[in-house]
Structure formats: C-alpha cells, structure tokens
Design a protein that fits this description.
Elements (H helix, E strand, L loop, with lengths): L1 H32 L6 H9 L2 H13 L14 E3 H34 L10 H15 L2 H27 L19 H22 L4 H4 L1 E3 L3 H24 L1
Antiparallel strand pairs: 1-2
Helix pairs in contact: 1-2, 1-9, 3-6, 4-5, 4-6, 4-7, 6-7, 7-9
Length: 249
C-alpha cells in the first residue's frame, strides 16, 4: 500500500511537470506586458525555474541514493575474478570522471558568469587523472560515496539555477563555457540532465557492485529482476524530466 501511494504521488508530480512548462510560458508572456515593472508574474516566472531542479534533487535523494539489493550468493550465478575487476575499474573511472568534470563545470560557470575576467584554468590530463584517482579511492568507502552523491545533487541544482538565470536574462553561452556543446547538444538544460543521468546510472551500478561485502568477498551475484526495478524507475523518471525541458525550450 505504501509503495502504491508513493508511486501515485510520483506519477501526479510527473504529470504536473508536463503541464508546468506551458504555465511558465503563459507567465512569461504576462511578464512581457509589464517588462519594465516588477510584477507578480515576473516573480512567479523566476521562481518557477526552481521547481523542477528541486523536485529532481528531492526524488533522487529519496529514491536513488540508498539502495538495497538481494545479497544472497547463488552458485554458478556470480561475477568474480577478472570479470569483476574489469567491471569495478570501468565503473569507477566512469563515475569518477563525470563527478570531477561536473564539479569543474559548476566552478567554470561561476567564473564565467560572476567573475568575468577570471577564467578557471582547465586541468591538464595529469591533474585530471589525479582527481579521478582520488575520487575513485573515496568512492570505495560508503560514507564518502553517499557524500559524493549529495554533493552531486547540490551541484546539479546550482547549475540548474545558473542556467535559468542565463535563460531569463538572454545571456548567450559560448565556447568559453566548459558546458558548451557538451554531448554535442545545444540545450544546456538537457546537457545538465544527461550528465546527472550518467552519474545516476553509474552510481547505481557502483552501489550494486560494492553492496555490503561484495568487494571484500570479491564475489557479486548477477542482478535479479528486483535489483533492476530502481534502475527502470530512474529511467522513467528522467524521461519525464527530459520531456519537461524539451517542452520548456
């Protein structure tokens, strides 16, 4: 019953997000009628840009941060040895790369947007590799992994607010911004969401691989249907978020 109620609330919230961009456009049109005055609709329009990012952070923290998996080992249905090592290394590098790059994007936007003339130097390959290595080591520990997840959500909501500020003030983003043409996309909001999705999926995979004593035993059982459900829910959730930003653009 609790799961059903939570699913209903989430569905209602997602449907609200599909309606919200049309409402925002109406508020924007009303705001344009009094563009020289500080009107009620301008306040609504400005604040409306915080709804979706806040909802994403709340839902991710609640549903996609603390995972529980079935940890029963099944004979002849396990991942171990070199295969497990390959999965661990690839996932750690992938997750660490996006975490490092995403945090850099945040500081890069701050420098370009608010500290003009003070461009953030881009780390060279050696420096960036050190960041990835350090993050990989920290991700092994559960407390630091959870801290990283919360930091990423804060990073996401800050970048979302910056991008909303750019949008409502018609500030163009050029190649001086690291986020420019990321994934070869033009829509900055979608870029922001896709980076978060990449981190979410990699974080889910790492949570599964490092669950409880998996790494110390160096044995991970292959995922069962129940283990994949959170990932499917995540894909559906972010599909609606992508639709929201696609309509808003």
């Amino acid at each position: 019953m609790i799961i059903k109620n939570n699913s209903t609330k989430l569905l209602v919230s997602l449907l609200f997000l599909l309606i919200l961009p049309f409402v925002q456009k109406q508020w924007f049109n009303l705001y344009l009628f009094n563009i020289n005055d500080f009107s009620f609709y301008s306040i609504l329009y400005y604040l409306s840009g915080t709804i979706c990012p806040s909802f994403v952070c709340f839902n991710s923290l609640r549903n996609y941060t603390y995972y529980n998996f079935n940890n029963k080992k099944i004979y002849n249905n396990e991942i171990k040895g070199k295969g497990l090592l390959l999965l661990v290394v690839i996932n750690l590098i992938f997750l660490s790369f996006f975490i490092s790059d995403y945090i850099y994007i945040n500081f890069d936007i701050i420098c370009n947007l608010f500290l003009k003339g003070n461009n953030l130097p881009k780390p060279d390959i050696f420096q960036f590799s050190l960041f990835i290595l350090l993050n990989s080591i920290l991700l092994i520990f559960k407390k630091s992994r959870l801290l990283f997840k919360k930091l990423i959500l804060v990073n996401y909501i800050l970048i979302s607010f910056y991008l909303w500020h750019l949008q409502i003030n018609n500030i163009n983003v050029d190649d001086q911004f690291h986020i420019y043409r990321y994934f070869r996309l033009n829509d900055l909001n979608l870029i922001n969401v896709f980076i978060l999705i990449a981190i979410e999926i990699s974080y889910f995979t790492w949570s599964f691989l490092s669950y409880k004593t998996n790494l110390s035993d160096w044995i991970v059982r292959t995922p069962q249907n129940g283990d994949i459900i959170p990932l499917l829910n995540m894909v559906i959730f972010y599909f609606f978020i992508i639709i929201y930003y696609s309509i808003l653009t």
